[in-house]
Amino acid sequence: MLPQTLVILSAPQMGQQLLAARKAQKMTQGAVAAKVGVAQSRISDLEKRPGEISLEQLLAWCAALGLELSVGQRGASAETLEKADW
Asked: Which CDD domains match (predicted)?
């Protein structure tokens, strides 16, 4: 199970969280793609290279997985994962 709130500091961390959330919900790449409005191959590519995702796609992907994106001051009280966790 994913922690309720994570601090994401890099594109690879975001990609890992999107992948983990998709798998935790037992969703296929195709199911996420249909909700986001892109091809399944695009979801596959973005899971491998999350730095290429547009903000619009990121927000749609989060919505498809029931996630929300939040921005705040660094050092706020959210769980931060160390680089070794990725």
From this structure: HTH_XRE
